[in-house]
Amino acid sequence: MKADVSPDAAEVRRIVELAESFPGVSTEFHQIRGSTRSLTELYLLGSTGGIPTAPFEEFQCVEKVVRITEKFRAIGRHGTDLEAVGFEYNGVQINQDSFHLFPGVCAVDSRENLEATFKALASNGLVTARAGVYKPRTSPYDFQGRGAECLPFVFELAGKHGIRLIAMEITHESHLDEIQEALVASGQPTGVMIQIGTRNAQNFELLKAVGQQTELPVLFKRGMGITLEESLNACEYVASGGNRRIVFCLRGMKTQLGDPHRNFVDFSHVPVVKRLTRLPVCIDPSHSVGSRTQAPDGLLDLFHATAQGVIAGANAVLVDFHPRPDEALCDGPQALLLEELPRLIEDIRIVREAYKARLARVAAPPRKSQKTS
Ligand code: PEP
Ligand code: MN
């Protein structure tokens, strides 16, 4: 529908009647609160192959009639027909053109370490962070995260340091309620983007649960051992449940062919996901690279991998930091130091500028005297 057309409008009701007059066809509304505008979409479900589009195009309030292929019905772009509207949450706009850095601790351990981290973010002008509270660990004997008991101080400190959005993984649907309750109890000083970790990428019940709530946006991490198509279908569970505020995160694939990196870096899929879906794309260099190894040129592999994602048009970077990585209870070896944050920001700025300059060149007509070297 055109911008600001309500599903209750009389003309929209006539469209629904027309659609449902075709045998076996039912309709469903989806509201998308985009970062630049809100969209109302009316879905025709059933065998719609023989239904002509022209009678629908004649309605004044209809912006576009799109024939949807079966694949990725809710998150897909379906050729060039659908725009990627993104979303706005707690004052942060996230879409396929925006860029945000989400540095933070892999796992919250102490109040002191978290405060040092949030303070460093704030002094670098950042309002987006990561903080793991529920940790899915390979061994049951490893630190499992501090869970709900630390949420009050996590939210309090976020509010104190102006953090507007924290990416936070959940491993069970009951964590959704724990987070919502703690946010309300602390006076909503910040916002949470629910992270679905790679190990839960095909936990369909969890995906349905986060999709059925529309309060909190979702950061979906690609499954580490499944195809991209399977991950996109999994993500479709979230969107088809009703929650369209999704960021798709690449975090490397599990294979020994990626050695010596922890996972095989898959950031060349940034433009692929942007082409196939309407979702903003995040990269996680920390869980891809998995260590602080340094290239002979002096840059850490982590910086190189980040740059590879950003030059490809990533919309967000999720990256592990810790004030004292030696003492971190989870993923210390891959954590960057707080004093490295300004350098990472500067490095990303340089690469993002280069990405924008590349875009300006494809948008502009080619210059006659252009050399290819
Ligand atoms: C994480 O971001 O803390 C994490 C566990 O990531 P992944 O699910 O990608 O392994
Ligand atoms: Mn981790």
Question: Could you outline the blueprint of secondary structure elements for this entry?
Answer:
Blueprint: H1 10-20, E1 26-33, E2 38-45, H2 54-57, E3 87-89, E4 92-94, E5 100-105, H3 111-123, E6 128-131, H4 151-160, E7 165-169, H5 174-185, E8 191-196, H6 204-212, E9 218-221, H7 228-240, E10 246-250, H8 270-276, E11 281-283, H9 285-289, H10 301-311, E12 316-320, H11 341-363
Parallel strand pairs: 5-6, 5-12, 6-7, 7-8, 8-9, 9-10, 10-11, 11-12
Antiparallel strand pairs: 1-2, 3-4
Helix pairs in contact: 3-4, 6-7, 10-11
What do these coordinates show?
With 373 residues, the protein is of the alpha/beta class. It folds into 2 domains: 10-57, no CATH class; 88-360, Aldolase class I (TIM Barrel). Helix content is 32%, strand content 16%. It contains 11 helices and 12 strands. The protein has an 8-stranded parallel β-barrel, surrounded by 7 helices. The protein has a two-stranded antiparallel ribbon with strand order 1-2. It has a two-stranded antiparallel ribbon with strand order 3-4. β10, α8 (270-276) and β11 (281-283) form a beta-alpha-beta unit. The longest helix is centred in the last third of the chain and has 23 residues, at 341-363. The chain is globular and about 65 Å long. The structure holds phosphoenolpyruvate and manganese (II) ion.
Brief synopsis:
This protein is an alpha/beta fold and 373 residues long.
CATH superfamily grouping of the largest domain: Aldolase class I
So what's the CATH class of the largest domain? Alpha Beta
Count of beta strands: 12
Q: Tell me which ligands are bound.
A: phosphoenolpyruvate, manganese (II) ion
Number of alpha- plus pi-helical segments: 11
Q: Strands of the biggest beta sheet: in what spatial order?
A: 5-6-7-8-9-10-11-12
pLDDT < 50 runs, ≥5 residues: none
The CATH topology of the largest domain, please?
TIM Barrel
Give the domain tally.
2
- Note the overall shape: globular
The CATH architecture of the largest domain is Alpha-Beta Barrel
Helix % is: 25-40%
Question: Hey, roughly how much beta strand do the residues contain?
Answer: 15-25%
Radius of gyration: 22 Å
**Average pLDDT figure:** 94
- Sheet bearing the most strands, described? 8 strands, parallel, barrel
